[in-house]
Specification:
The chain has one domain: Up-down Bundle (Outer membrane efflux proteins (OEP)). It is built from ten helices and six strands; from the N terminus they run H-H-H-H-E-E-H-H-H-H-E-E-H-H-E-E. The relative contact order is 0.15. By secondary structure, the protein is an alpha+beta fold.
Length: about 425
């Protein structure tokens, strides 16, 4: 009986010692990465439905400047003029008439209309670039979240196997009278909780993978293999440097283009009271008399300028001021978001490094010390279990912080308009 119990205890201690290194480094022993983050970004930029739709919308929008700046189509009129009811063509006023009329906008109106639509088209192009930046940010965030979940599940599965071993050891000790039934129940509860946590993590993984595939333009059920999760980098650019780089962010440049478009629209409305000129030329063919020609020039009279043109001017000025306010708000929001995300990245990097270099080694040392005490019977094996699980929690937290860091860096890149491999 003593020999059997000793063998069980020795096997448990050996399992704990091996798990000390296996749980922390398990991700290094799994299959190689199936998809790099650069490959995921490339797929998103070429296959994402959202990116494709935004680019097609820009293609359609590019026709607007030419449309609004073109002259109106001329009007061709054909008429039988001054015919008697008996259709007698011998009358002096009887004629067959052809007229061509053309409206000529006042100087500056067409150029202002072209400038407005051209600036709006530029804003649409920058909006499409911002969509690409946002999609890439989301892809990178989901990519590293999936990588974190996979590694966390690996650690949790190793923990579950350890719990099963300890449960068997506790049961064996209880059967020979050297253990408490409470230890067996605690081991069972811990194992059941770990099973539930693993199931929850796998469900999160499935949901994240479906969203990830959707962004890449793939089927939601497409397999997503083992992904990369780099460790955080200690050094980050200063906030002032990031804000200077953010001036090229597509969303900020699009807002500035809309301010310019609003200014062009204001100039157009300020010219609205200037009359367009209608020119009409005509030829009248008279069967029995000499032919005639006619030329007419007409223009509208802005007699109701106070109720027609002036309200348009006030409206355009308010729209221009609103566009300027939107641009300023976006600038301030970009600065605040950069400050927040940089702080998130710095915190994740610092805490992750602290866990890796200080907390985890000390926790591992505590496990080894507990194992030594457990071998001589001076420490309850559940205390060893708790210390081991604490190490696992620290390791999972370190992995989570690595994913959080990558997510913060992706957000920073999006806020300054950068896509890995190129700049918008």
């Amino acid at each position: 009986m003593f020999t059997h119990r000793f063998c069980l205890m020795r096997a448990t201690c050996c399992g704990l010692a091996l798990f000390t290194t296996q749980a922390v480094q398990a991700h290094a022993q799994l299959p190689s990465d199936s998809l790099t983050v650069d490959e995921a970004i490339s797929q998103a930029l070429t296959q994402s439905p959202r990116v494709i739709a935004s680019r097609l919308a820009v293609d359609a929008r590019r026709e607007r400047p030419t449309i609004v700046s073109a002259l109106p189509d001329p009007v061709l009129s054909l008429g039988l003029m001054n015919r008697p009811f008996d259709l007698d063509a011998d009358q002096a006023m009887t004629m067959n008439q052809v007229q061509l009329a053309q409206r000529l906008p006042w100087a500056g109106k067409r150029s202002s209309a072209y400038e407005r639509e051209d600036r709006l088209t530029a804003a649409a192009e920058l909006d499409a670039a911002e969509v690409a930046v946002a999609v890439v940010e989301r892809v990178r965030t989901l990519y590293h979240r999936i990588a974190y979940i996979d590694r966390a599940i690996t650690v949790m599965e190793e923990t579950r196997r350890l719990l099963a071993d300890l449960q068997r050891t506790a049961l064996a000790q209880y059967e020979v009278g050297n253990g408490a039934q409470q230890d067996v129940l605690r081991a069972q509860v811990a194992q059941a909780r770990m099973d539930a946590d693993i199931r929850a993590m796998r469900q999160q993984r499935n949901a994240s993978a479906a969203r990830f595939n959707a962004l890449l333009g793939r089927s939601p059920e497409a397999p997503v293999g083992w992904l990369e999760l780099p460790d955080p980098v200690a050094e980050l650019p200063e906030l002032a440097e990031l804000m200077a780089a953010a001036e090229v962010r597509p969303a900020l440049r699009a807002a500035a283009a809309r301010v310019e478009a609003a200014a062009a629209h204001r100039e157009l409305t300020e010219r609205a009271h200037l009359p367009d000129v209608n020119v009409t030329v005509g030829y009248s063919q008279r069967p029995e008399f000499p032919d005639l020609f006619s030329v007419m020039v007409g223009m509208p009279l802005p007699l109701r300028r106070g109720s027609n043109q002036q309200p348009q001017v006030r409206e355009s000025r308010a729209s221009e001021a609103a566009a300027e306010a939107v641009h300023l708000e976006l600038f301030n929001e970009t600065y605040a978001a950069l400050a927040e995300r940089r702080a998130d990245a710095a915190r994740a990097s610092e805490v992750s490094e602290l866990l890796r270099t200080d907390v985890l080694p000390q926790a591992e040392a505590a496990v080894q010390s507990g194992l030594s005490s457990y071998r001589v019977g001076s420490l309850d094996f559940m205390a060893v279990l708790e210390s081991r699980m604490l190490v696992n929690q620290y390791e999972i937290e370190r992995l989570r912080l690595a994913a959080e860091y990558q997510s913060a860096v992706a957000a920073i890149d999006a806020l300054i308009g950068v896509i890995p491999g190129g700049t918008q």
